[in-house]
Amino acid sequence: SLHEDGESIVAVVRNVTDRRRAEEALLTSEIRYRTLIENIPIGVYRTSQGPPGRFLMSNPALRVMLGYESEEDFHEMDVDALYVNASERETLSKNLLKRGSLTGYEIHLQQRNGTPILASVTARSG
């Protein structure tokens, strides 16, 4: 096509249908994953490595299990504070890094009010 002054217009057209479908499928998958994690009655979390450790993600079941109502309060504390003995987290971390994954690994945690609980952890590093 030409402008009134005789200049031409150059345009590039690409078919982005496949990309758009992939983006929509990814979004749908993310929504399903988040819904599963938020509603599963088992505690799920991700933490940073090393002491003292920070929660990167936790689901409501974990927070209820440990006596926390607020996600913000839960994520502000050091992960080490949940362990009856902080060295137990170090041992768990070393075993996890060495093996790559753990199944049914028992740890002693404490609820917000100080009540100890025995927890079985299944985890993988990465």
TrEMBL record:
InterPro entries assigned to the protein according to its UniProt record, in alphabetical order: PAS, PAS-like_dom_sf
Protein name: PAS domain-containing protein
Pfam families xref list: PAS_8
Lineage: unclassified sequences, metagenomes, ecological metagenomes
PROSITE patterns, A to Z: PAS
Gene3D superfamilies attached to this UniProt entry: PAS domain
Organism: marine sediment metagenome
Segments forming domain PAS: 29-72
